[in-house]
Amino acid sequence: MTEEVMPDRTTGPESQQRWKYLDTILSRPGPFTDPDWEPGPPVRSALQSAKILCSCLYMIFIACIHTLILDRGAGGLGCEILKNLALSGFKDIHVIDMDTIDVSNLNRQFLFRQADVGKPKAEVAAKFVEKRVKGVKITPFCGKIQDKDEDYYLQFTMVVCGLDSVEARRWMNATLVGMVDENNPESMKPLIDGGTEGFKGQAKVIFPTMTSCIECQLDMNAPRAAVPLCTLATIPRQPQHCIEWAHIIAWEEERKGDSLDTDDPEHITWLYQKALKRAQEFNIPGVTYSMTQGVVKNIIPAIASTNAIVAASCCNEAFKIATNANPFLGFPGTNNYMMYTGDAGVYTYTFEHMKKDDCPVCGNLAKPLVVDPDSILQDFIDSLAERPEAQLKKPTIRSEEKSIYYQSPPALEQQTRPNLTKKLSELLTDGEEVAISDPAFAITFKFKLIFKS
Ligand SMILES: [Zn+2]
């Protein structure tokens, strides 16, 4: 059924039907509702005698709430989140997205149609939901989250993130933590963060500076370990190893000069056949064309049902924080992290991720990093990109006393470049604190370098 032939649900019984269950939740406490919230007989009778008061209650709790949704990239959590928030009664929603609609999005990003291909996602999604859920105002912004400053983020009650990159999450997290002013409770904006990867997903709620933040949790999503080249070349154990072998080694040897185009079916077919042959030699089953495509393009498939589950969980938390109708995740000292796994059965687990005192964003102690004092600075800089606890690609490093290495400006880079070949033990002492900044983040990370003995 297309949207044109759907019945109009904006007035009369259709509309009442739409909000019936929501009204129920808002007009009586559940078994876990805070006792102070309980409407009680007087509130109940007031609600019953005046329908308008119910709307008012509704207005106080929800209509004045500004919610910001961030979505970027392949995941497509944004469509689900936007739809859910609108249908949860939020009236003023802002959405940021930098992408335009691609034909490959249409299978799961259900707010988009063939005719929308090439148009900005934020605008099309906003229009679609405004049309279907009357009374909701959605303000789109086509651009990056980094285009906006603290003043912009201060206007919201909370921020819901469906971002696909760790970097964008870390930026948003650091910005919200940096905004907190102890003397102004309004400056603390809860951050609800959803993420999916194939059949796995998680939803978490962060109260900046009060509970564990994205940076505290950074080592939970370490970059995927690369397979050593020698494994690929000598003893492949998995079908993916055979594909990587075809991709990295066979192509170089046999088609040198041809630049590999991962969108060219002929190239993928060639790699697939090479990988298949190698897999047969080593008795490894499982190499397929689509796996070849996935490995070569480094794609993790987006699963629509994972998106739906994680988005539902995020919006549920947003609703509970806004209305206090039920206990929400992230209240200090309680569970703040829900993980979902759907590849081997269906499993969810909710726990409290502890805030870290040495978190470079929300903690006040420098985070220890164990290093080899005999390794050179260049190696240390390279390792920062891969270390799960750092993940910094263009670090600038300085100690209290001196500039160790600057990525920019060019004059400072040139001046500090000779340090790259020096041993860490020549530049720093055991246990010394260094400040590391990176152009991708608005803040400086504090680390304490511990020499490995
Ligand atoms: Zn933290």
UniProtKB/TrEMBL annotation:
Keywords: ATP-binding, Ligase, Nucleotide-binding, Ubl conjugation pathway. Its EC number is 6.2.1.64. GO terms for cellular component: cytoplasm; nucleus. Pfam families: E2_bind, ThiF. CDD domains: Uba3_RUB (cd01488). Pathway: Protein modification; protein neddylation. It comes from the Eukaryota. It catalyses: ATP + [NEDD8 protein] + [E1 NEDD8-activating enzyme]-L-cysteine = AMP + diphosphate + [E1 NEDD8-activating enzyme]-S-[NEDD8 protein]-yl-L-cysteine. It is an enzyme of class 6 (ligase). The keyword ATP-binding applies. One of its GO terms (molecular function) is NEDD8 activating enzyme activity. GO terms for biological process: protein neddylation. Signal peptide: none annotated. Residues 369-452 form the E2 binding domain. Belongs to the ubiquitin-activating E1 family. UBA3 subfamily. Catalytic subunit of the dimeric E1 enzyme, which activates NEDD8. This is NEDD8-activating enzyme E1 catalytic subunit. It comes from Pseudovirgaria hyperparasitica.
